[in-house]
Amino acid sequence: MSEDAYAKAGVSQGEADAAVAALVAALRSAAPADSRQVLSSGHYANVIRLDDRTGIALSTDGVGTKLVLAERLGRWDTVGIDCVAMNVNDVVCVGAEPLAMVDYLAVDRADAEIAGAIGVGLARGAELSGIEIVGGELAQLGEIVNGLDLAGACFGVVALDDLVTGAEIEPGDPVIGLPSSGLHSNGYTLARSALDGIPLDDERLGRPLGDVLLEPTEIYVKPIVELLRSEVDVHGLAHITSGGLGNLLRLEAEVAYEIDDSLPVPPVFNLIQELGKVTDEEMRDVFNMGCGFCVVVAASDGEAALGLLRSHYPGAKRIGRALASPRAIRRPT
User: Fold this and answer.
1) Measured by CB atoms within 10 angstroms of the end CB, which terminus of the chain is less buried, N or C?
2) Would the pTM count as exceeding 0.90?
3) For 237-257, how does the pLDDT look when each residue is reduced to its tens digit (9 = 90+)?
């Protein structure tokens, strides 16, 4: 993986991966022998066994440096949607129905107007995903934080017999891509570096650049829960965030994924690549490139799944298939 542009912008994915591995190793060493944990580390969410039939799915995430743009624009009413989306989209990937969230807002100085605007977005995100936000924390950390940071944690429930881990994926299963609404909440350090110098009111993309960059992360929960409740045999679910379609490899199946008909790439990604002189490989590693979520279903259910998903996302389509090959993302040469 080439990460030259991202590293120059200030983010090293290699260092991040090593740090996560160190955290996971330390936590694994402290796990009790009778752990209730159902899944191994590395999936989108983990599941705790509540009893013999029911699991609680848990995940946590934040908005990242998209908040820098919100501050520059003085617009805080959408980043709460991003916070909800980044959490609920992960929880649904294990087949769970998200139920509730708590949020964590760290600030250098408490500001009621900003907090209220963030709350508007959180409430909208909760409405779009069908969850409740049942509590949270506001911490004034002026000695640590310059500005603010917004994160959350989500839980959902899943019947243990209905877990979706990817283990059932078979060669020939279609991969269906759902369109993203834009950058979502990943890669903003690279995006801001590439677009530095372009006014946020520039309209070369058809509307102000600031509006394009603050477009909220799409929330996929309701269509995916509908799919899970249907007769379609869902084999795998993948939230496409940092790492791009490589996130499919977080699923448990020992297969490769051939991506032969990608979704259209929104113009903002082309602008970032052109101005930032970013390689194709790195763009695909950092950004969703127009595909925000992937669904893998049994080969016999491909058309039924597409029909249901297109009722919510007309641009949904089959973008590839699973292959009987070592784990990898493959593209036509």
Assistant:
1) C
2) yes
3) 999 999 999 999 999 999 999
Three-state SS for 305? Answer: helix
Cβ within 8 Å of residue 270, ≥6 positions away: none
pLDDT digits (tens, 9 = 90+) for 132-146: 999 999 999 999 999
Query: What's at 264, amino acid-wise?
Result: P
If you ran DSSP here, which 8-state letter would residue 198 be given?
S
**Residues whose CB falls within 8 Å of the CB of residue 323, separated by 6 or more in sequence, listed in order:** 171, 255, 256, 257, 258, 330
Check residue 37 and report its DSSP letter: B
What is the C-alpha to C-alpha distance for residues 94 and 99, in angstroms, rounded to an integer?
14
Q: 3-class secondary structure for 141-154?
A: CCCCCCCEEEEEEE
Contacts for 315 with CB less than 8 Å, ≥ 6 apart: 178, 179, 263, 264
CA distance 28 to 21: 10
> What domains does the chain contain, in order, with CATH numbers?
36-162 (3.30.1330.10), 174-330 (3.90.650.10)
pLDDT (0 to 100) of residue 306: 98
- Alpha-carbon distance 23 to 135, whole Å? 27
Phi and psi for 171 in degrees, rounded to 5? -55, 135
- C-alpha 229: how far from chain center: 22
What does the pLDDT average to over 16-31? 75
